[in-house]
Structure formats: C-alpha cells, structure tokens
Amino acid sequence: MSIHLTEPDAERLTVLHRFVKTPVEGEHLRRLEETIAEAEVVEPERIPPDVVTMNSRVLVRDLNSGATVAYTLVFPSGSDARRNRVSVLGALGSALLGRRAGETIEYQSSAGLEQCRIEELLYQPEAAGDYSA
Question: What is the pTM of this model?
Fold first, then answer.
C-alpha cells in the first residue's frame, strides 16, 4: 500500500533533524526520511480522509493484548505520554504517519517488535477542513 503525505507535513518533517536528541530518534528520523522519499505527496485538500496525517487522532488496537488506545500524532515539541500524544520521532509515531485506517503496522519499540492495527481515524485535520494544523 502506498503512503500518502500532505505537502505541508512533508515540508515540516524535513527539518526534524533539529529535534533529534538520541540515536533512537535518529533512527526514526532516517525511517521518516525514507517514508517521505517514497510517499505520494499531495495538497492537503487531496489527502484521502482515512490517512494518518500530522495532528490526526487515531484509534489503535494492540494485536498482542487486544487493547485499544486513541493517540494523537504530533511533532516532537507536542509529545505528551500522559495525554497519548505520540511524537512522529517515536517508534509508534513514525510507523503511523501516512498509513490508513484498517492497516496493520509493525514497529520496533523498547519492548521488542510490536504489531497494531489502525482501527479508526477519529480526527484528521484535513478532513475537518483545518489546513493550518
């Protein structure tokens, strides 16, 4: 399945190297750079409404435990674990970006290889007409 990104997200993501503080974040940044290079980049008005973009809120099901959690995908400065705001420079955040509702994703966390399914996009800024997010 192809990855979709909005033009503003792709532009903002290219400057994230300023926020990298650890080798792990550097690895996630390299993965993001690959994602951007392979992605279909479109105007915000043309992004499919089921694609996870920056500031999207998604319902994710852990395929090992069956637990579901709603997360918001944010830039590093907005991350807050207590509020389930995951950084795009984190393992889960970088895996979510550009993926679609219904997709199963894998990512490497500190606990090992994780698998989850994007159950639902609860909010996508572009689908809501918010192009400034």
Answer: 0.88
